[in-house]
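Lab notebook page, bench 4
Experiment: in silico fold of construct C2
Operator: M.H.
Input chain length: 192 residues
Purpose: comparison with the prior construct
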Amino acid sequence: MSVALAAPSAASVDRLRSGDASLVLQAALITGTALLTAALAQFELRLYLWEIPLTLQTIAVYGSGLFLGARTGALAMGLYLALGLLFPFYAGGGTGLEHLAGASMGYLVAFPVVAWLAGTVTKNDRGLGRTILAIAAGSVTLFASGVVGLHLVAGLGWADAFVNGWLRFVPWDLTKIAFVASVYLVARRATS
């Protein structure tokens, strides 16, 4: 008796990551994800842990790399940043270069890098462990960049920037990581 192992079939959602997807589909995914990020940026808790609000936009940032892959996810986040220069797409309806160069600068400029990282880490393995690793690596990158931005732009000392720009957000971000990983894995399972 011989046992043949079949190659696991790719989930339909994985086709969104495909480099051979049509240009129209890729443009729609990039634009749609940028607009989703803008919408989630407006869902902020009016609780400011310092100068940085709690928003839902990082759900889209983490998810863009997972669902769209490294290149397309990074392009979507780059489009979000560009659109925010012209439209009130940043958190709290912020817009323009002045907002982009403000206290949130370190976080915002990390968005394309975070999406690229999440997509790269999950390029060949999209299981639970790799998915959580990808989002956690993105989170560390996001908050490290945010802390540097708070130090350089807002003039906070390193300790204050670390506490106010990272540590206070850990419980919220862990919740977002669990949520995005769950949604992604459920979507992959549902489309297999």
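Observations: The radius of gyration is 17 Å. Residues 1-8 have pLDDT under 50 and may be disordered.
Next step: discuss at group meeting.
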